[in-house]
């Protein structure tokens, strides 16, 4: 893509309305534009990144056998009255009257609607487990929307739901999502730690928040540092293997503030391992048994003819919020350098030809390289503007493509100034550059 | 995918609530489930098809240089007051009050919001043309939602907007979309004819509806038959070439009923070429100049410093409606056989092993073939249920994968009963089958 053709309104300075760095950067490089309080449009750069995140989330859901469906944004109030949450949910729920004067609402979450689908379609234990997910816009009418898309009103979320015939099976489903979440965040190059958490308006007695560390985070966390060294590489989707994984994580204290207990923390975590800090919630999983299936009468026939209310869990990932979370984790705001993980980068590489009024040989060279890279499936953003070199570099450092090629007058025929963003420049042949990027993309 | 693991609730008979064949089939094979009047959830089979249609629509937008953005579903009322449509739009607009008592609405279309984005980001004629599109849920509070997703309330739509500095440039943009629409519908194996149409609440003086013929369609059309023989194969994205294309189509009378004029029709179309029938609108394009840019003050600086209100057009494709439109065009409801175009088929091939209580060799064989096809990037739905053969065939004929392999006891070692749905069966080697499908997928 040539930057002259891209709708990418770059600001010289940070906007005064933005107080955290993800919000600043997203406005600065034109990833989003606010349309009303807590409601944003996504411009090409931001959308491209969000779509890549969405696809990674989707792939990891599919890998555990979850099926994608798509529920509407507007829900009938009746099912929320059945579950008992219609009155409880409070003002965060956007309530709507349609032209027939029926009570509708913009879904803040989908436990009721998915339970309604389940009860009308699935009748037998033989069809279990059912793992269903969708990726859809949600609305929560926050009192004070803030921090850009981090705490906004209309947001994009993956929410999954599991249906099982008993607690044991249901915990197996829960653990599949537990693993799947670790894998999803790893692919986004985030260290997201599962923390025992409160269940809030979703309900139930078992819940983990997946939290990445960030000073600007709104979640206060208390953890044993050693939990950050764990990984899931030896885990399979087998039941036992997942149980081992859960135990491995459960051995270290790690909770959000609602679950915090000072005595326990100090008893279980030696002083040198204590970590008290802030983080951003990027995922949240819940097990709540028959909290919804019972009032909504969602049951299956067991062998022998008995009926059993299905045992359910729900599993959310904030897809739009992850865009901001990655920025919080990766953006060096002192030096104004962003580096997107290659897996979600808007473009793999920034091609930066020096501009010279009387000599466009650098741009011509860059255009040739652009075509060559494109042939090799490397997605390139070329700065064909007439800005000076330092402002081009500054801009590309903010946009954050992981690699850069700089084309000056002195570029030799077959060697180019190449660098991974924020690292040293090397002179490499184009073939060599293609090899390096292709190899990293495969990882 | 094994059918036993797929949430695909097949009904034995047509549901009485469905009166047109797309609605019947979509309920019959579990593509959608109604959650309230005119609002549907998409189940795995339906969603998979819709996502493929969405991707084709997206690719064809990208090919003409349109950039993808994503505007929110909930819009502020202020911009609609600026354009003057807030009061005009009537009860089809879903109006909402948020917790701060602000007037919001669920976007039925996006002229205002995209104009608001444009005016705040684009200042100079040098940044023109801008072609922006998004694919997002819309809501129109229909008085009588009906025909399933064909006339529903919450629907999925691609809407694009063009911004140019004068009429001449703007018509060039209009013509790009005109070509792009012909290409999009061709890839969906639909013959969609552009018909001069009324502009309705969008406004302007130039508009085409793209209509496919269907007896169940709600649009009445009057056309010269010869327009169905035209094609765009010699057209490029050059201005002149597009003008030639437009002239080619304009030479034949073809209008929707609001534009119908009996005298003109009879004067311009000889009796044997007259076609009066019904169709389904799958796309609609509009040119309306400065209808929105003027009241909303969206202007650019021209060379010399003059300001000019931008000239705009808008371009819609009903992505969710297309799922139903393709069924209306392709479903043989007498024989209960659907055949999806390979480009959007939920699976390329249905693998149908005969079930035998005491001998599962057919299923084993099928599982091996399944793996082999998967290796070759052929997406297969295998019926591993214990239903009898004729009910399996019946089901797969409804689901409509374009190809079928039947595995009976008598299948010889290396040859299999293969057919394109609704055609004759041949005995072919697996390699041969893979070759046939792969070749067709490339087309």
Structure description:
The structure is a homodimer of 443-residue chains. Chain A has helices at 21-28, 44-63, 78-83, 85-88, 111-121, 167-187, 239-250, 262-268, 319-330, 361-375, 389-399, 430-442; strands at 32-36, 39-42, 67-68, 74-76, 94-97, 103-106, 130-139, 154-164, 192-196, 206-213, 219-224, 254-256, 274-289, 299-301, 307-309, 311-318, 349-353, 380-382, 403-407, 415-420, 426-429. Chain A has 443 residues and is an alpha+beta fold. The model of chain A has no long low-confidence stretch (mean pLDDT 95). Helices cover 32% and strands 27% of the residues of chain A. Chain A is built from twelve helices and 21 strands. In chain A, α1 (21-28) crosses α9 (319-330). Chain A starts with 20 loop residues before the first helix and ends with a helix. In chain A, the strands form five sheets. In chain A, strands 3, 7, 8, 9, 10, 11, 12, 13 and 16 form a nine-stranded mixed sheet that branches. At the A-B interface, β1, β2, α2, β3 and β4 of A face β1, β2, α2, β3 and β4 of B.
Which properties best describe this structure?
homodimer, 443 residues, alpha+beta, 9-stranded mixed sheet, 5-stranded mixed sheet, 12 helices, 27% strand, globular
Q: Which geometry of chain A do the CA atoms define?
A: globular
Chain oligomer state? homodimer
Largest interface by Cβ-Cβ < 8 Å: A-B, 53 and 53 residues
Amount of helix of chain A: 25-40%
What is the overall number of helices of chain A? 12
Q: Quick one: how many beta strands of chain A? A: 21
Note the main sheet of chain A: 9 strands, mixed
Q: Estimate the strand proportion of chain A.
A: 25-35%
């Amino acid at each position: 893509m040539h930057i002259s053709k891209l709708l990418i309104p770059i600001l010289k300075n940070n906007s005064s309305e933005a107080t955290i760095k993800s919000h600043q950067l997203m406005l600065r490089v034109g990833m989003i534009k606010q349309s009303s309080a807590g409601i944003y449009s996504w411009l090409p750069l931001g959308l491209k990144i969000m779509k890549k995140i969405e696809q990674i989330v989707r792939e990891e859901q599919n890998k555990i056998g979850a099926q994608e469906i798509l529920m509407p944004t507007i829900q009938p109030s009746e099912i929320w009255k059945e579950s008992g949450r219609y009155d409880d949910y409070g003002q965060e729920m956007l309530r709507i009257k349609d032209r027939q004067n029926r009570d509708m609402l913009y879904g803040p979450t989908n436990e009721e609607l998915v339970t309604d689908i389940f009860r009308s379609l699935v009748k037998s234990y033989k069809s279990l487990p059912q793992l269903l997910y969708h990726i859809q816009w949600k609305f929560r009418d926050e009192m004070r929307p803030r921090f850009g898309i981090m705490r906004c009103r209309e947001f994009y979320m993956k929410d999954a739901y599991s249906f099982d015939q008993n607690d044991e099976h249901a915990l197996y489903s829960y653990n599949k999502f537990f693993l799947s979440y670790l894998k999803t965040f790893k692919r986004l190059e985030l260290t997201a730690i599962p923390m025992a958490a409160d269940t809030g308006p979703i309900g139930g007695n078992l819940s983990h928040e997946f939290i990445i560390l960030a000073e600007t985070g709104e979640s206060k966390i208390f953890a044993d540092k050693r939990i950050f060294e764990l990984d899931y590489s030896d885990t399979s989707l087998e039941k036992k293997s997942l149980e081992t994984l859960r135990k491995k994580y459960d051995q270290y204290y790690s909770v959000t503030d609602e679950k915090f207990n000072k005595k326990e923390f100090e008893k279980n975590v030696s002083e040198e391992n204590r970590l008290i800090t802030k983080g951003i919630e990027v995922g949240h999983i819940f097990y709540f048994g028959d909290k919804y299936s019972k009032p909504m009468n969602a049951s299956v026939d067991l062998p022998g003819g008995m009926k059993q209310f299905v045992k359910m869990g729900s599993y959310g990932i904030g897809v739009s919020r992850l865009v901001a979370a990655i920025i919080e984790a990766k953006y060096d705001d002192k030096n104004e350098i962003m580096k997107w993980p290659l897996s979600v980068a808007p473009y793999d590489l920034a091609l930066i030809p020096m501009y010279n009024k009387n000599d466009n040989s650098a741009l011509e060279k860059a255009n040739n390289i652009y075509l060559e890279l494109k042939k090799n499936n490397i997605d390139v953003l070329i700065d064909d503007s007439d800005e000076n070199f330092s402002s081009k570099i500054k801009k590309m450092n903010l946009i954050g493509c992981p690699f850069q090629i700089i084309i000056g007058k002195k570029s030799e025929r077959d060697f180019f100034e190449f660098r991974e963003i924020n690292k040293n420049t090397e002179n490499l042949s184009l073939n060599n550059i293609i090899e390096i990027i292709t190899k990293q993309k495969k990882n």
